[in-house]
Amino acid sequence: MHSNGTTPVKHAAEAFERKAPVGSELPTLISPAYENQPLLEAFGELRADIEALVTRFGGVLLRGFQVPSVDAFQQFAAAFGHPLLSYEFASTPRSAVSSGIYTSTEYPAHQHIPLHNEQAYTREWPMKIWFHCVTASPEGGETPIADSRAIYRRMPAEIRERFEPGILYVRNYGDFDMPWQQVFNTEERSEVEAFCRRAGIRCEWKPDGDLRTTQLCQSMETHPVTGERVWFNQGHLFHVSNLQPEVRESLEELLDPEDMPRNVFFADGSPIDDAIFDEIRGVLDAETVIFPWQAGDVLMLDNMLVAHARTPFKGPRKVVVAMAEGHGNLANTTF
């Protein structure tokens, strides 16, 4: 209860504009106790509810609160008690805004970023992720989300069985992927090698000085708190079928499969047919929840329970991101 006798208002997801599969309750909407209530002021009253709702539904949307600056957003994310994480072993370009706060993926505005759980292409990932909409695009630019538990349940059993041993990610850094210096935040080969040893990544320096890494990672995981199984990988982003057809064709004329900028294989190293990822993308599409951003929105997700994406947009758009509560599975990383 606030000093003015009001309490924060929580709504079911159906209370605001969104498109979602039948039965979805993502995201739960939380509104302020009074107009333009500062989000930081509301934190003490809201924290327990937010944490319970994120654990149950996977995500909450805090809308209508006053978030006057990126610093205020940073303080809100940090207030949950875990140090904000840096963005290591990057797969996409981002820029640091301030300590622990990053721009959302800096892909061109016309490109769609498919659903994914943050850093699911590694064996270490954040459990919590926050998005803050500073500027909402006038057209597009939504951050679609999807329940990873529902994706797992909807995924054909034969695909789950084939993916159960994990999947193998192969990256070749350089001209077509991000430079290894940017990915590992260092110019020193020895530091790259030390990171890879710790993370269970096989690294290889090629004659031209570029780097190749290979890592066997999970395709599905069990949530450490809820005990539920989730679909948890980025195979559909790394597989060559994610490339534009003309780009893929030109690269395949030049490179062997293991030399493609990014590719993914079954755990035994055998190729994965395009048709399998067609099915996987169909499941992801069927579970997608989409809603328009409003300036000031804060979306908090359990990164294992909920995947996120980005739609193309026009005009100005600024969404910043924070991550916390590192978790992982570094056991059985040899292959």
UniProtKB/TrEMBL annotation:
Keywords: Antibiotic biosynthesis, Oxidoreductase. Its cofactor is Fe(2+). It comes from the Bacteria. One of its GO terms (molecular function) is 2-oxoglutarate-dependent dioxygenase activity. Residues 45-322 form the TauD/TfdA-like domain. GO terms for biological process: antibiotic biosynthetic process. InterPro entries: AlphaKG_dependent_hydroxylases, TauD-like_sf, TauD/TfdA-like. This is TauD/TfdA-like domain-containing protein. It comes from Halomonas salipaludis.
